[in-house]
Records
---
Amino acid sequence: MSHNVDNNNSNPDQDQYGVLLYYKYATIPDLGSLLAFYESNCNSLGLLGRVRLAPHGVNVTVGGELSSLESHIDAAKAICLFEGTDFKLASSHHPLNDKVAHECGFTSLSVRIVKLGLVSLSVLQELVTLSSHPLLNPPDISNAGRHLSAIEFHSLLQSAGKLLDEESPTDDKELVLLDARNLYETRIGKFHTPSVETLDPSIRQYSDLPSWIDENSEQLRGKHILMYCTGGIRCEMASAYVKSKGAGFENVFQLYGGIQRYLEQYPDGGFFKGKNFVFDHRISVGSSDENILGSCFLCGSSFDDYSSRCRCTHCRMLVLVCDSCLMEGSVYVCELCQKHSKGVGSLPSTEDGKIEVALPRFELKTVNSDSSVSPQPTWRHGTEYPRKLRILCLHGFRQNASGFKGRTASLAKKLKNIAELVFIDAPHELPFIYQPSNASSPLKSCPPTLPENCRKKYAWLVAPDSSRSIKIDWKKADGPFDPLQYQQQTVGFDVSLSFLKTVCSQQGPFDGILGFSQGAAMAASICALRERLKGELDFRFGVLCSGYALPSKEFQPGSINCPSLHIFGSDLGKDRQIANQASRDLAMAFENGCSAIIEHDSGHIIPTRSPYIDEIKGFLQRFL
């Protein structure tokens, strides 16, 4: 059987090599059988690349000889699951070099079953969820935007304002283009037409798109929205997400087959300017129009070639660096990280081959989980380290950053490959407490002498009658230990909130916030105010350990929309500080499906033995 092949390579010696991309949203009852098919078929045909299977779909990017790819298509079409599937087959050159082949996954065959959603997210093209909240259910794919063929899409742009059918826009001003791709993709190519506005979210990764849609919904409300992406897969889920927002978001359309099919239909580029970034060794695919849309990150000259694979030293996003500016051992900071004050420009390597990342000097006192390194690690040329999650850690009542770091040393050690924990002292300094002796001698009731190395204690919230003076070293206890004392500690939130805003502006960005006991109550309050604090306190998730809810209207059941992990002692856990029900009530304040719970039997601590540490890692890895 013959197949249509996009021949974008003029060298006849290389035309025998090709790339095949396709996806399918459907319920797959027997993943094991499909896994066996791909392993057997792809290996027998000598195909390399990635195959991702999930309970509700398949995503495939493989390369090999064109005849082998055509044989694979025939075999896949024999499976009823792939009825109506758009198989995108293109001739191609072989990978430019080993680095490109390795990054794009074309050095071996990888067939895996994954548990998350189906979408091309990065150069790995894993099956992942669209949502920036990995714990939430993805939008209903059956509610995706209406498919438009390349011809329909082009016609609509060409005659914006004319009827396509009864659902088509009738006013030029009501039509808007929405690019569902990442910033490094839109840098080198996008749709442009004078009569239609193009919205470019400029996001780092696909999972950031829902947040952008939420924040910019008024630009979309009431409009006829034309969405597009590389090959169509991302628009399936993203268009369903837009439509899920309800009234005012009904008219959503998507380019079927994506930019790839559009360029095949319009080889001169049509309304698409520049190149189409692709997640395989081709890197990008252009039209006959040789105009360059991209520009060098450093000098600004016209440039759109990512083959050097230069990346931001902080977030690892690709950056464009032209041949003239390319220097061995240089460090680059992308525009998104610059926006968050992570340093600018390119820094040459030092004589010993190390590269020091320039960072602002901070005045706030912080403690990192690994005190042997600076807030960002030293980078050695030739080694690519994945960016770790940065998690801001809030200690409990009457603790401090140093003590909390010590208590969580085991946690930091077991998370060292995926997370950096940053500890800070709370802003409210507390006096030390002593319990007077029952002895009759007045000397027995005097406070003890402070050791020289005794560290001060702090709190995020204090009781209304607490002394405001930080000159008091000791305070006589009002009575025996009260396990419910936290219920009276309700003053000082605004001071702590302002303090945390300063921390984030000087040391951010942070991916998440972790709180223990009173620190968890503070962190939970920030989760509740997440939308109002955007731009001042930005983070993607919260980890709340032995937490409880403050007496606030913000903590109504199901009212908080933020991914969260709740870790607390079970009824048999014997947590003398925070009752199981208090932590459970806090978890219930988060939206259904937005929170995960780990109950343990270890008391008032953060457990680090199995299976608890595995569950903690599992939660965090969703955000890498």
Note: The CA atoms of residues 204 and 384 lie 18 Å apart.
---
Amino acid sequence: RVSIINLFSFLGEINTCIQASELAVSLDALPLNEIPAAPELTEEDARDLDALCLAKSHFELKEYDRAAYFLRGCRSQKAYFLYMYSRYLSGEKKKDDETVDSLGPLEKGQVRNEALRELRVELSKKHSAGELDGFALYLYGVVLRKLDLLKEAVEIFVAATHALPLHWGSWLELCNLITNIEMLKSLSLPECWVRDFFMAHMFTELQMIKEALQKYQSLMEAGFAKSTYIISQIAVAYHNIRDIDQALYLFNELREQDPFRIENMDTFSNLLYVRSMKPELSYLAHNLVEIDKYRVETCCVIGNYYSLRSQHEKAALYFQRALKLNPRCLGAWTLMGHEYMEMKNTSAAIQAYRHAIEVNKRDYRAWYGLGQTYEILKMPFYSLYYYRKAHHLRPNDSRMLVALGECYEKLSQQVEAKKCYWRAYSVGDVERMALLKLAKLHEQLNESDDAAQCYIIYIQDIFSCGEQLEHAEVSTALRYLGQYYFKNKLYDEASLCAQRCCDYNDAREEGKALLRQISAVREQGEPSSTDLSLACVFNPLINTTTPVRRASPLDLSSVTP
């Protein structure tokens, strides 16, 4: 454990070093006699050691050109990796320096690292000769990915995981290139305990949350129960399925175990934002500023705080600051798109969402945001395309299905719209809007029986959740059902609906008018209908036998962080 962590640290792979160290701390300490000896230096390593130490000092000071200069004649594999890695990072630094002052973050992706093509040629020759170790293969894969040679990059990253299974950076890069479960299953990955962490991470990315939680549970039972990394990933998984309470609980537990942790705190702030927990979000923002105000996560948390206070210009400013620190920060691109949407700047929002998709094509929030933006621009065909993409990534998310249904409705494809609304209800309607929209669609198409059934289930669903939703249109449903029952001569049911209409200001007069109509009909001695086909339309306020899908009510219509 110690030797591999030291190796990662020495070669500048700090993120992998932190990951390995966190996992090592969660395990029981080894007795002294079981700690393996450090690997012996090869003759080439010994010859290059002084130059390597000098170059490493310049590397840590971000003097990448100087580091590469002192390593140019070295032959060991460690020196070669650090030499090539320094040249790569030098190109990245120069690219950022060219853009940071002259261009905003939206144009940042237009500038290229000029060193990439040269690095690719050199690494390709070494690879053909079989002279690249696990670290150099990782760098070769990064270069290919930066050049958009994605198929070749996947092959190289798979080779890197075989050559050095404990290098988490290779696994993460591979994760970003896998688009679906079929592609994941087709890869020949090494049999190693790190593979279990990778599979759990991959399941989370592919929205296969049940499988991800099972994998993380088995890892905790295998000895990693104290791992803060696993706790954070489980919290992220619950965040992805909108189990807000469980996710908040785990993030609070994580903060107790690691109070100075900044990783994943942007996700924690998303949850606080959704719950409108202003004091908690304010405390988190101030706390992170005290720890490190120049971290990407800190900027995102502050941005969420200002967004919750409806100060959208300030929020966008902090998301831009996050992107200056890391142009590949997925969350910042998406959240900045949301802020531009709030400011009615649709062109900037579209650019932000497109950049988010460039970073990660699996980000359903960006696809969904593009759909919303084009919907505002009254371009339903474009909206339909992007909503379909979002639905493909989140097939069981009712919000995507409702959005699809609305698009189909605007395009006069009522049959498809009805399918989407019913599917949204079947998978668990988060916003409890699907049945209402379906009922109104049936009403427009003069399908009165179907509309009545939908309104009935809608009313039961609203009352079963135990609280009134802001958008709840119970009075609309009661008005329609009252008239429906009256037309079908079910006067008792019509009377009950009319009485309940009187509880709502916007339906009170219509309820009273309907009660007068029912009284007049009864005075004339007209009997109620006994039609069995209508009797099956159960009483919406008494019958509780109809199964209803329950979900925590969340208002996420304006933002999906």
Note: The two ends are 37 Å apart (CA to CA).
---
Amino acid sequence: MGQSSSSCSCNNGHEIYRPIIIGKNSGDIDGDDDLTLSLPDECLGSVFGKLGCLDRNSCSLVCKRWKCVDSKSRNRLVLLARSELSPCLPSLLSRFNTVSVLSLKCSRKLFSIDDAALSRIPIFLPFLKKLKLKGCIHISDDGLHAFSLHHPPLLTKLSFASCGFGAKGLNSLLSNCPSLQDLTLKRLRKLDATSSTPASSLWPGALNVDGGDVSNDHHNNINAVVAGDANKKEKDAHNYYYKRSLRLERLCLKDLHNARLFIPLILSASSSIKTLIVCRSSGNWDRVLETSLHGKTTSISEIQMENVQMGDAGLLAISSSCPDLQLLYLSRTTDCTDDGLSAIANSCRKLRKLHIDAWSRFGSRTIGDEGVFSIANKCSQLQEVVLMGIPIAIPSLNALASNCPGLERLALCNTDSVQDSEMAFIAAKFLALKKLCIKNCPNVSKSGIEAVGRGCPNLVKLKVKRCKGVTQAMVSRLRFQRSSLVVSLDAGSMLFDSGGISLLASAVNEEEQGTATAMTNTNSSRSAAAAAATTVAATHVICSSRGALLLRSKFESALQLGRRRRPTEDNAS
């Protein structure tokens, strides 16, 4: 394509590239000429941005100009961070020095990059905004400390998963990264193993800006600082480090242990944090929230708690400290009841999204219809409600319809209380509803879905999953009646027609015959194959979408095996 004659114009924009037209007529262009020479570097970089990773890597090998444009237009770089990358990482990063998002991933079974390689990243990437480390178990606290001493001015987001450092390195990052706003921690086993004084191990400022250790007298007793019983020296240290982490707006903790470790971190960022996500992290989170949010009015607008030990005490702490709460996500929290949800309803009047997956431990009390009723009466700005495992009744639905005029998304899942009467009520009262999801509600039949089709004038999407009373024929009729309505049906069942069953029976039969050649009684194998085919024909397998796809792939492979073997036997005969 004539790339050998191309030159790079990335350093200055004074050179003008024009295609060389060769031929008798002006329209005759030699195939060896590069028509991209007339494009500015910005346009060519935009074209490269539309390509996939492999295609873009191939384009960088075409010519010097394309390599230069590719280097200057890349914003995101994902590298396999094995130990072999450490010596060549500086030259690689100097080539892509405009990258703002860097992701380093490695398997925990392999040797990852070391501390020296990590510490030089801010030197070669001055515009770095997001750094993600996954599986880099050979990066220690010293590597994070050396990285933070460069004070990356634009670094706003950090994500660490399955790494080998602990509290000391995190303290250094919190102290030396002034623009940090988003912190995600996942599966940090060394952090989980921290003992002795866990309440102060994550205190933002356990390392000062210069990297030296602060005296333990400053933060040895967090409760004394909170209660105001510490001396003036301790209070000054608390105020200093409190100001150091004011910019932290999002904190995500997943698959961690010992919840007490994060009391000082949440406490110091309570005035600036807006999103708190805790997922599958053990410990008493009631105590964490009570200690961290005690007596404060925070700006938290989103809280997600999933598979954690938390009850009404944690919900009371949230209700008293988060008046601006807009999203509450509770999934399998162990001890939350209607009382805690009523406290949220009384204090958090700005709530817009509510997701509840009710779950009771050993049959104890959990969130039910009463808590939903209190939320519907007090939170008039609700736009999205997802209820899983909650026996909701018509009075609660009536409260939602009358008090929440802006409710646009509603999902009712895993409950026997939702029947055709509730579906008819939703169709008649929820006039602003745009998206409706009904999942695993066995008492919903075609009459309830037809009622929704006749009502809900603003409905644009209806999703029905694992409702045995809803058929594909009824959904097709509903699509014909309301062409603008997108209807998604997933019955969660695998049924084959007679042709599919016969092919499957043939495949099973042939498989049994192949394995029974050394056996004298072949009639038993054939009877077993026929019984298996009969079982498949008579069984209605209820499963999720992912399970249905798995079963479909298994059955289709058996059908294809039968199709391939049948012509072979015909030719042999």
Note: The first strand starts at residue 76 and ends at 80.
---
Amino acid sequence: MVLTAPAARRRTGSLDARTHRHKMTVERVFDELGHFKRFQACLYFAAVFQAVACGIHYLASVFLVDTPHFVCSVPGNITDVLYYNLTAHSLEDILPVFKSGTGPLVVKTAEGEQWELSRCRCALRINPKGFSYEFDGNKTVKTCDGNFVYDHTEVYQSIVTDWDLVCEKEWLAKLCQPTFMLGVLVGALVFGDTADRIGRVKILMFTSFCQFGLGVAVAFSGNYYVFVVLRFLLAMASSGYLVVVFVYVTEFTGNKVRTWTSMHVHAAFAVGIMVVALTGYLVRVWWIYQIILSICTSPFLLFCWKFPETPFFLMAKRRYKDTQTLLESIAHFNGLECRLKELPSQSEKKLSILDLFCSVRMAGRTCTVWAIWFIGSLGYYVFSLGAVNLGGNQYFNLFIAGAVELPSYLIGCLAMDRIGRKKTCAPALLLAGVACMLIIVVPADIEVLAIALSMTGKFAIAIAFGLIYLYTCELYPTIIRTLAVGSGSMMCRVGSVVAPFCVYLADVWVYLPQLIVGILAFIIGVLALLLPETLGRPLTTTLEEAEALGHEPSKKKDGLEMKQHEVKA
């Protein structure tokens, strides 16, 4: 098998026929070597295994910054505690039932002093008569001065309890997740662009080692600021891996299985969420919890250095000898004989994010795709944060939250393969918009219906959000594919940052968040109908091919032109 650049230019007819054959040659690799045989299966499951780490690190902060019940500490040994009609001999016995915003805890020390303890202040009773919960006398009120007693029933040790991130420092704890999301945004853009320039494998290796190293380093953070910086870098690495792995598995699997292989990367992310819940339930010390989560996928590091570069990237960079070696390896591993004799040559261009807007058609496509990324993330978090509190065990709730995502990906896969990407994405967004509108008109006393509509909206948004990764890969050519996914992921993170502020608008009007999401989802769903369908089409390698999606001549006309070219030749 020999890979050569196209022969010297001959007559126009012969050149056009050859160009038509070359357009299909890259996808024909999978027809010859298998769409998902042993070689691709080994790479896929290894790459997806590491994607579990992304779900882990994205959700790890749920328990890292968990704030347990707490009150001010007082000098002296406490002998008696009152909380309304409850009595105890230590704060540890009462704290599990203590609720923020309710009355204080009243304690009596061995020295005879009586204190009223709240979360961020304490009051010393002056000349009390007897020991009772109610007191109308004078009190000396003061702040806690960094002395707190925490409830260790649910969380034995978190960064909140270690560094007292409560009261006037509470905002520091709340800043952890937005800072992480900022790192995700930066990582998606930086690594997406870099992967298009230096290769997918180098980025996968680098981000995998960074996830392990930075994940463990977070556990040994000496103070809050080191913790935040390390988590920011960890977010960049996790985001970079997640963006590139979608492109990697897409470029190594044929179009017959591409829908399933892409969507089930999301399933791996959901598994990561369930791992967080299980680990959080079993380990209640934050730094041990962080170490265990970081080493969950460490076996991947033993063999990720053997990952090959994708044939699409190699040919886009005109590395034909490397492509030849790779195809021979795939054929040998799959027990097949590769009969591909000639692959197209392509001139390498230095592209940037501006090339996503290289024409009016591509600019419109990019704006629509970015909007889908944005509303997918915004809608997902608004539905999640605005849903009725399930109550019960928080670890079980998080586990279920990850598990319920799996059916949406299954249904999304079935629909994408049968009716197409566009005809799945657009109706899903329209359904989410309609569900939001119906929530607004549901009577307040019919909570079951409101919850059902909320779950319907979340389910529909999850389908659209799940398929946009693959759809983006198929809408853009090899030379700019990772950058397209990376920039889309950046818009996704913008949505996740905006979502909490959108939820806060419920203070203005209880249904305002749903109204905003509903209007945006409906409008973007209509715009999605203008995107080209990519089901069953080969991945494009040039901007010209990508721009022509949805505007190709019919197969009948195309076949007639081919016959004419062959006659002329």
Note: The beta strands are 70-72, 78-83, 86-88, 105-109, 114-117, 121-125, 139-143, 148-150.
